[in-house]
Amino acid sequence: MRPAAQTVTRVGIAGFGAIGQELARGLAQGIPGLTLAAVAARDHNRARANLIRIGADAPVVDIEGLEPLSDLVVECAPADVLPAIAEPVLRAGKEIVVLSAGVLLQRPDLIDLARECGGRISVPTGALIGLDAVGAAAEGTIESVRMTTRKPGPGLVGAPYLEGLDVDLEDVQRPVRIFCGTAREAAEGFPANLNVAAALALAGVGPERTMVEVWVDPRVTKNTHTIEVKADVADFTMTIENVPSENPRTGRITALSVISLLRKRGAALSVGT
To answer: I need a labelling partner for 217 at 20 to 30 A (CA). Which of 7, 67, 235, 250 fits?
Structure first.
Protein backbone atom coordinates (compact mmCIF):
# COMPACT_ATOMS: atom_id res chain seq x y z
CA MET A 1 0.00 0.00 0.00
CA ARG A 2 1.31 3.40 -0.94
CA PRO A 3 1.92 5.87 1.92
CA ALA A 4 -0.47 8.81 2.00
CA ALA A 5 0.74 11.93 0.23
CA GLN A 6 2.29 14.40 2.64
CA THR A 7 0.50 17.70 3.06
CA VAL A 8 2.71 20.70 2.40
CA THR A 9 2.67 23.37 5.11
CA ARG A 10 3.13 26.93 3.91
CA VAL A 11 5.55 28.78 6.22
CA GLY A 12 5.53 32.55 6.53
CA ILE A 13 8.43 34.45 8.08
CA ALA A 14 7.72 37.68 9.99
CA GLY A 15 10.92 39.70 10.19
CA PHE A 16 13.86 39.19 7.87
CA GLY A 17 16.99 39.87 9.85
CA ALA A 18 19.71 37.32 10.60
CA ILE A 19 17.30 34.71 11.99
CA GLY A 20 14.67 35.11 9.31
CA GLN A 21 17.25 34.83 6.54
CA GLU A 22 18.80 31.69 8.03
CA LEU A 23 15.35 30.15 8.30
CA ALA A 24 14.53 31.05 4.69
CA ARG A 25 17.81 29.50 3.58
CA GLY A 26 16.94 26.28 5.39
CA LEU A 27 13.49 26.16 3.79
CA ALA A 28 14.97 26.87 0.36
CA GLN A 29 17.42 23.99 0.79
CA GLY A 30 14.47 21.74 1.56
CA ILE A 31 12.59 20.58 4.65
CA PRO A 32 10.12 17.74 3.93
CA GLY A 33 6.51 18.86 4.09
CA LEU A 34 7.32 22.58 4.29
CA THR A 35 7.58 25.40 1.79
CA LEU A 36 8.45 29.08 2.17
CA ALA A 37 5.21 30.94 1.44
CA ALA A 38 5.98 34.59 2.15
CA VAL A 39 8.21 37.01 4.03
CA ALA A 40 7.03 40.10 5.91
CA ALA A 41 9.59 42.87 6.19
CA ARG A 42 9.63 46.65 6.57
CA ASP A 43 12.05 47.18 3.68
CA HIS A 44 10.62 45.18 0.80
CA ASN A 45 13.44 45.92 -1.65
CA ARG A 46 16.11 44.86 0.81
CA ALA A 47 14.19 41.70 1.68
CA ARG A 48 13.86 40.78 -2.01
CA ALA A 49 17.58 41.30 -2.50
CA ASN A 50 18.36 39.07 0.47
CA LEU A 51 15.99 36.37 -0.79
CA ILE A 52 17.87 36.31 -4.10
CA ARG A 53 21.21 36.27 -2.29
CA ILE A 54 20.33 33.19 -0.24
CA GLY A 55 18.65 31.39 -3.11
CA ALA A 56 15.07 31.58 -1.83
CA ASP A 57 11.93 32.60 -3.70
CA ALA A 58 8.82 34.02 -2.00
CA PRO A 59 6.66 37.15 -2.12
CA VAL A 60 7.52 39.99 0.26
CA VAL A 61 4.47 41.45 1.99
CA ASP A 62 3.44 43.66 4.88
CA ILE A 63 2.49 42.01 8.18
CA GLU A 64 -1.21 42.01 7.38
CA GLY A 65 -0.56 40.11 4.15
CA LEU A 66 1.29 37.24 5.82
CA GLU A 67 -1.51 35.21 7.43
CA PRO A 68 -3.62 34.62 4.28
CA LEU A 69 -0.58 33.14 2.50
CA SER A 70 0.61 30.96 5.39
CA ASP A 71 -0.45 27.89 7.36
CA LEU A 72 2.23 28.57 9.97
CA VAL A 73 4.09 31.79 10.76
CA VAL A 74 7.50 32.14 12.40
CA GLU A 75 7.95 35.41 14.29
CA CYS A 76 11.51 36.71 14.34
CA ALA A 77 10.75 40.42 14.49
CA PRO A 78 11.12 43.18 17.10
CA ALA A 79 9.18 42.27 20.22
CA ASP A 80 6.79 45.21 20.00
CA VAL A 81 5.21 43.96 16.77
CA LEU A 82 4.50 40.41 17.98
CA PRO A 83 0.83 41.10 18.80
CA ALA A 84 0.19 42.51 15.30
CA ILE A 85 1.77 39.38 13.80
CA ALA A 86 0.20 36.84 16.15
CA GLU A 87 -3.39 38.03 16.45
CA PRO A 88 -4.56 37.35 12.86
CA VAL A 89 -2.72 34.02 12.78
CA LEU A 90 -4.28 32.81 16.01
CA ARG A 91 -7.70 34.17 15.14
CA ALA A 92 -7.56 32.05 11.98
CA GLY A 93 -6.83 28.97 14.08
CA LYS A 94 -3.26 28.65 12.79
CA GLU A 95 0.12 28.18 14.44
CA ILE A 96 2.74 30.80 15.22
CA VAL A 97 6.29 30.04 16.32
CA VAL A 98 7.31 32.81 18.72
CA LEU A 99 10.87 33.91 19.38
CA SER A 100 9.92 37.06 21.33
CA ALA A 101 8.74 34.87 24.20
CA GLY A 102 9.00 37.69 26.72
CA VAL A 103 5.94 39.33 25.18
CA LEU A 104 3.83 36.32 26.17
CA LEU A 105 4.43 37.18 29.84
CA GLN A 106 3.01 40.67 29.23
CA ARG A 107 0.24 39.59 26.85
CA PRO A 108 -1.38 36.41 28.21
CA ASP A 109 -4.43 37.37 26.14
CA LEU A 110 -2.57 35.98 23.12
CA ILE A 111 -2.56 32.56 24.79
CA ASP A 112 -6.27 32.99 25.53
CA LEU A 113 -6.88 33.88 21.87
CA ALA A 114 -5.08 30.73 20.73
CA ARG A 115 -7.20 28.64 23.10
CA GLU A 116 -10.47 30.24 21.99
CA CYS A 117 -9.82 30.03 18.24
CA GLY A 118 -8.01 26.70 18.03
CA GLY A 119 -4.67 28.33 17.24
CA ARG A 120 -1.30 27.31 18.60
CA ILE A 121 1.72 29.14 19.99
CA SER A 122 5.05 27.28 19.87
CA VAL A 123 8.18 28.55 21.60
CA PRO A 124 11.35 26.86 20.31
CA THR A 125 14.26 25.95 22.55
CA GLY A 126 16.23 28.72 20.90
CA ALA A 127 19.37 29.77 22.72
CA LEU A 128 18.60 27.72 25.83
CA ILE A 129 19.26 24.04 26.37
CA GLY A 130 17.35 21.89 28.79
CA LEU A 131 13.75 23.06 28.32
CA ASP A 132 12.74 19.42 27.85
CA ALA A 133 14.20 18.58 31.25
CA VAL A 134 12.60 21.61 32.90
CA GLY A 135 9.22 20.76 31.40
CA ALA A 136 9.52 17.17 32.56
CA ALA A 137 10.49 18.27 36.08
CA ALA A 138 7.49 20.61 36.14
CA GLU A 139 5.22 17.56 35.87
CA GLY A 140 6.43 16.84 39.40
CA THR A 141 7.49 19.51 41.91
CA ILE A 142 10.18 22.09 41.19
CA GLU A 143 11.64 23.80 44.23
CA SER A 144 13.68 26.47 42.47
CA VAL A 145 14.89 27.64 39.06
CA ARG A 146 17.72 30.12 38.56
CA MET A 147 19.35 31.35 35.37
CA THR A 148 22.58 33.30 35.21
CA THR A 149 23.34 35.06 31.93
CA ARG A 150 26.74 36.46 31.00
CA LYS A 151 27.13 38.52 27.84
CA PRO A 152 29.75 40.79 26.34
CA GLY A 153 28.70 44.44 26.26
CA PRO A 154 27.34 44.47 22.67
CA GLY A 155 24.93 41.66 23.56
CA LEU A 156 23.08 43.96 25.98
CA VAL A 157 22.96 47.16 23.94
CA GLY A 158 19.52 48.76 23.77
CA ALA A 159 18.04 47.13 26.86
CA PRO A 160 15.53 49.51 28.51
CA TYR A 161 16.68 48.39 31.96
CA LEU A 162 20.10 49.94 31.36
CA GLU A 163 18.74 53.42 30.68
CA GLY A 164 18.74 54.28 34.38
CA LEU A 165 22.11 52.70 35.16
CA ASP A 166 25.53 54.29 35.00
CA VAL A 167 27.09 51.49 32.94
CA ASP A 168 29.19 52.05 29.83
CA LEU A 169 28.93 48.73 28.01
CA GLU A 170 31.92 49.59 25.85
CA ASP A 171 34.17 50.25 28.84
CA VAL A 172 33.46 47.47 31.33
CA GLN A 173 36.78 46.14 32.59
CA ARG A 174 35.56 43.38 34.90
CA PRO A 175 32.39 41.27 35.29
CA VAL A 176 29.54 43.38 36.66
CA ARG A 177 26.15 42.10 37.76
CA ILE A 178 23.62 44.53 36.35
CA PHE A 179 20.36 42.73 37.17
CA CYS A 180 18.92 40.32 39.69
CA GLY A 181 15.20 39.62 39.78
CA THR A 182 12.36 37.53 38.42
CA ALA A 183 11.99 36.33 34.86
CA ARG A 184 9.03 38.70 34.44
CA GLU A 185 11.20 41.65 35.42
CA ALA A 186 14.00 40.40 33.18
CA ALA A 187 11.65 40.14 30.19
CA GLU A 188 10.44 43.70 30.77
CA GLY A 189 13.93 45.13 31.21
CA PHE A 190 15.63 43.19 28.43
CA PRO A 191 12.92 42.49 25.79
CA ALA A 192 15.38 41.83 22.95
CA ASN A 193 18.12 40.23 25.03
CA LEU A 194 16.51 37.75 27.43
CA ASN A 195 13.70 35.89 25.71
CA VAL A 196 15.46 32.82 27.07
CA ALA A 197 14.33 33.81 30.57
CA ALA A 198 10.70 33.93 29.46
CA ALA A 199 10.97 30.56 27.71
CA LEU A 200 12.49 29.04 30.86
CA ALA A 201 9.68 30.47 32.98
CA LEU A 202 6.97 29.21 30.63
CA ALA A 203 8.51 25.72 30.62
CA GLY A 204 8.84 25.52 34.38
CA VAL A 205 7.43 27.30 37.42
CA GLY A 206 6.33 30.61 35.92
CA PRO A 207 7.79 34.12 35.70
CA GLU A 208 7.53 35.02 39.40
CA ARG A 209 9.41 31.97 40.73
CA THR A 210 12.10 31.86 38.03
CA MET A 211 15.05 33.94 39.20
CA VAL A 212 17.48 35.60 36.81
CA GLU A 213 20.88 37.26 37.09
CA VAL A 214 22.44 39.22 34.24
CA TRP A 215 26.15 40.00 34.07
CA VAL A 216 28.05 42.08 31.55
CA ASP A 217 31.35 40.25 31.29
CA PRO A 218 34.26 41.44 29.14
CA ARG A 219 35.93 38.02 29.49
CA VAL A 220 33.28 36.19 27.48
CA THR A 221 32.89 36.27 23.71
CA LYS A 222 29.73 34.14 23.65
CA ASN A 223 26.27 34.64 25.15
CA THR A 224 26.41 32.30 28.13
CA HIS A 225 23.43 30.95 30.08
CA THR A 226 23.57 28.67 33.14
CA ILE A 227 20.39 27.06 34.46
CA GLU A 228 20.15 25.56 37.94
CA VAL A 229 17.06 23.52 38.81
CA LYS A 230 16.16 21.76 42.04
CA ALA A 231 13.18 19.41 41.85
CA ASP A 232 11.78 16.30 43.49
CA VAL A 233 12.76 14.13 40.51
CA ALA A 234 16.21 15.62 39.77
CA ASP A 235 18.63 18.42 40.45
CA PHE A 236 20.49 19.61 37.38
CA THR A 237 22.76 22.39 36.15
CA MET A 238 23.30 23.23 32.47
CA THR A 239 25.46 25.80 30.71
CA ILE A 240 25.40 26.82 27.06
CA GLU A 241 27.76 29.25 25.34
CA ASN A 242 26.12 30.59 22.18
CA VAL A 243 28.05 32.06 19.28
CA PRO A 244 26.41 35.43 18.47
CA SER A 245 24.79 35.91 15.07
CA GLU A 246 25.12 39.07 12.99
CA ASN A 247 22.88 40.54 15.68
CA PRO A 248 25.04 40.27 18.85
CA ARG A 249 21.95 40.02 21.04
CA THR A 250 20.98 36.70 19.41
CA GLY A 251 22.87 33.41 19.16
CA ARG A 252 23.33 31.61 15.84
CA ILE A 253 21.73 28.51 17.34
CA THR A 254 18.36 30.27 17.59
CA ALA A 255 17.56 30.03 13.88
CA LEU A 256 18.74 26.42 13.76
CA SER A 257 16.48 25.63 16.71
CA VAL A 258 13.48 26.84 14.69
CA ILE A 259 14.56 24.75 11.71
CA SER A 260 14.87 21.71 13.98
CA LEU A 261 11.39 22.34 15.40
CA LEU A 262 9.89 22.61 11.90
CA ARG A 263 11.74 19.56 10.63
CA LYS A 264 10.20 17.43 13.42
CA ARG A 265 6.68 18.24 12.21
CA GLY A 266 6.90 15.84 9.28
CA ALA A 267 9.58 13.46 10.52
CA ALA A 268 9.01 9.73 10.89
CA LEU A 269 11.24 9.87 14.00
CA SER A 270 11.14 12.79 16.42
CA VAL A 271 13.53 12.90 19.39
CA GLY A 272 12.79 15.25 22.27
CA THR A 273 9.61 17.15 23.02
So the answer is: 235
